[in-house]
Amino acid sequence: MPIPSISLLRHWSPIITNLLLRHVSTVRHRHLPIVVFAAAKPQQQKSYNARKNFLRAKQHTSKEYSSLAPVLSPDDKPELTESQAIGTVAASQANFMRVIVQSEPSRSGVELLCVVRALLKKIKRRVLVGDKVVVGSIDWVDRRGMIENVYQRSTEILDPPVANVDHLLVLFSVEQPKLEPFTLTRFLVEAESTQIPITLALNKVELVDEETLVGWKTRLQSWGYEPLFCSVESKYGIDSLASNLRDQTTVIVGPSGVGKSSLINALRSNPRASDAVEGDNWFEPILGSKWLEDQRVGEVSTRSGRGKHTTRHVSLLPLSGGGYLADTPGFNQPSLMKVTKQSVAQAFPEILKMLKENEHGKCAFNDCLHVGEPGCAVKGDWERYQYYFQLLDEIRIREEFQLRTFGTKREGDVRFKVGDMGVQQAEPRLEPKKHRRQSRKKMNQSILDDLDDDDDDKDLDLENDPILRALRNENQ
Ligand SMILES: Nc1nc2c(ncn2[C@@H]2O[C@H](COP(=O)(O)OP(=O)(O)OP(=O)(O)O)[C@@H](O)[C@H]2O)c(=O)[nH]1
Ligand SMILES: [Zn+2]
């Protein structure tokens, strides 16, 4: 069984270049404009940068999985050979992925350093941290393997790119920095728009008196949230947070300085959670693996001053009690890119409650924006109504700008790409479906043709391979 090695990367590069060239010429052929944000007026550019690509999550529908990117369904249990295993991608670095797999027969977790199968790259199937994958060609001694296939994702957030996140922890501090209700609302609206379950926690509670905390609790309850209080400093509330995160993949979201890194470290060294040491989530790391080390709280200021162009590595840190925590506290500026004028109301529990309690269960107009239309079920006597107005206005301005610039206001119609050096680009989606199918057919064929030359696919059962079968089927 060959061990995937760095020499494989050399082998892939002409294929990838070839694909890139093919892609570029397709775009040119259609005379479609590629709009680059840098070309916007300074003011527009600024507001767009500020709204940069934050926490956009996709809830996948089966439609989004074309046969060009076939995935294993969550219930698939492929028969595994001795050199295959199923695992979770815990970190990605350059061309390697660190995958934690269950090794047979001991069933304990083992870290493997993996490359991604060339075919997956060719069909542009991105493997993300958090993905559940099938690893093959495993060398159990050298801890090497190759990612052969990916399972369907339940969710996908894009900044940082993590698959299968099933919990968002929105963390703020009561003081240092002071809890600011509008900023908190922005983060909550962004988090709600992903439709991933949320926990709201307030840190640094040892800095304020009991009365202040009770005040916040009542206030946040009226917003529809049940906040958890904690202090990394005094260890207050860390145990209940730990049990809240158990067995889930959690991303911590919150402004700079509230204590996200500190909390991650505290949770990972929590003695209560470590009762389960060498239990559920224990695995054997590769000697010298650095990605598992503690978050440096000292790195805070460097991180908050992090340039847009810096590459960020995301890793999922296993919690000893079970579950994972994403280690990139990267969400400092909610962009609200995924939120539309019509959907922003869905992110306010107060509005949802008023609609539910209304005798008709809705407003008189289906497209009611709840800004005083006749027959509107949303009444004005609630604290965050002004914030709702403010956000609605901001989103309206963005949608109008998109309409002028891209000829579409739906975020889903514009693709955002982080190009070289992190420059953000947007381009309209390629519209004509027929054309797309045509070129996809050609691409499928060229992938099938290319396969004969691929060393790393030689060991696979090409006849029965699910990905290849799907490509062939589509071309029939
Ligand atoms: N008083 C007090 N300070 C805390 C507490 N938790 C964290 N801190 C301090 O708050 C500062 C910021 O903490 P970090 O964990 O780096 O904050 P962060 O949210 O990761 O910040 P960014 O990395 O900039 O997003 C550090 O000086 C911590 O020591 C707490 O419970 N009480
Ligand atoms: Zn209404």
Automatic annotation (TrEMBL):
Residues 432-443 have a biased composition (Basic residues). Residues 417-476 are annotated as: Disordered. It comes from the Eukaryota. Residues 449-464 have a biased composition (Acidic residues). GO terms for molecular function: GTP binding; GTPase activity. CDD domains: YjeQ_EngC (cd01854). Keywords: GTP-binding, Nucleotide-binding. The keyword Nucleotide-binding applies. Residues 155-334 form the CP-type G domain. The keyword Nucleotide-binding applies. Pfam families: RsgA_GTPase. Residues 163-332 form the EngC GTPase domain. HAMAP family: GTPase_RsgA (MF_01820). PANTHER family: SMALL RIBOSOMAL SUBUNIT BIOGENESIS GTPASE RSGA (PTHR32120), SMALL RIBOSOMAL SUBUNIT BIOGENESIS GTPASE RSGA 1, MITOCHONDRIAL-RELATED (PTHR32120:SF11). This is Small ribosomal subunit biogenesis GTPase RsgA 1, mitochondrial. The lineage of its organism: Eukaryota, Viridiplantae, Streptophyta, Embryophyta, Tracheophyta.
